[in-house]
Amino acid sequence: MTIRTRFAPSPTGYLHVGGARTALFSYLFARRHGGRFILRIEDTDLERSTAESVNAILEGMAWLGLEYDEGPFYQTHRFDRYNQVIDELLAKGLAYRCDCPKERLDAMREEQMAAKLKPRYDGLCRHRDLDPSQPHVIRFRNPDTGQVVVDDLIRGRMAFDNRELDDLIIRRSDGAPTYNLTVVVDDADMAITHVIRGDDHINNTPRQINILRALGKEPPHYAHVPMILGDDGSRLSKRHGAVSVVAYRDQGYLPEALLNYLVRLGWSHRDREIFSLEEMVELFDIGQVNKAAAAFNTDKLDWLNQHYIQHADPRRIAHLLRPHLGDLGIDPAEGADLTAVVAAQAARAKTLVELARISAFVYRDFEDYEEGAAKKHLRPVAAEPLERLRDRLDMLALADWEPVTLEHTVHRVAEELGLNLGKVAQPLRVAVVGRAASPGLDITLSLVGKEATLRRIDRALAYIRQGSAGV
RNA sequence: GCUCCUAUCGUCUAGUGGUUAGGACGCUGGCCUCUCACGCCGGUAACAGGGGUUCAAAUCCCCUUGGGAGUACCA
Question: What pTM, to 2 d.p., does this model score?
Answer without folding.
Answer: 0.94
